[in-house]
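Tokens help. Our protein:
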Amino acid sequence: MKHSTRLGAAAVTLSAMTVLAAGGGGASSDSSAGSGSGKKTSTLQLAIASAVIGPKEEVATYSVAEKQGFLAEENLDVKTINTDGSVAAVQAVASGSADITPADASAILAAREKGVPVVAIGGLVQNWPWRVATLPDSEIKSAQDLKGKKIGVISLASGSAPYARAFAEDAGLDAEKDVDLLPVGVGSQALSALESGKVDALALYTQAYTTLELGGKQFNYLENGERFDGIRSLTYVVRQDTLKSKKDELTRFLRASYKGMLFSAANPEAAMRDGYSVFPAILSGKRADDRIKNDTRILEAWVKTAVPAEGQPESFKDWGAISDEAWTRTADYMKASGTITKDPDIKALWDSSLLKGANDFDAAAVLSKAKSATK
């Protein structure tokens, strides 16, 4: 298992990131001419955009790729660090503390607007994962009822903060004056804030609610407006100079990552057991057999946000693709939420040149491996 380091949001400020725009490299790695036996192993540093490891992207894309040998097939040694949300994860990439991270698109767009030389190279979450929820007996029945209320977000550096602001804006509210955002984390901490009245509603991602619901809790979900259709969330991002110097390594990483996604979609329970093996802290001292049922359901909830909304794993293809229309919708959303102030240069922001190579794998072989894996 690779050891993780945690970087807080204060590790590198956005202003410091702007200074970095002039140059500087990513985390060091051995170069490699390509995948295949006999090639030199390359090292990449992956920033996880969360302080807490759980049944989500780090399991589906990294743990599975590690345990099922997809990274080894690509001659990659990938090490991980934890960060306090997407903003901090992008900061880690910009500072050179990490080579790549799956960060929320809001953090990527905000960094680009500040002149930080980062570029998105592959999509991950393609179905909008965020929801606003209240307790079943709450007087809040619609988005308009949030006026004067407090909304709990994971942190002000996470994707839940711009989502909460945009949700209020979409309801005709002034996001700066009509609602207050309070950091409450996830899990029992967030639930306690809601049940105690510290906050009136929560703005969390789908699988965070699934975790609480598996513990017997119930929520009333407020309806997302049409503006949230087609908006992108977690997206792989690197520094521009890292893309130039490590194009081959990054292609191989994306390929291993998307293999992990396909495997997880086909056999989420086996994927979750891979997660326990790579990140035993997920178990919190409990036996895997005591946790596997619920954790698998949580992982499934996350996977559904990252694969096509329709179809079966056998039909999934074009991993990582993001259309210009999707980027435009995402940018419009970020402007409305106050995350950015102007239209981004999509051609500078988005580089899809690695995706052909990243999709160059035998999907049938991955599916066969997933179906034969021990549950």
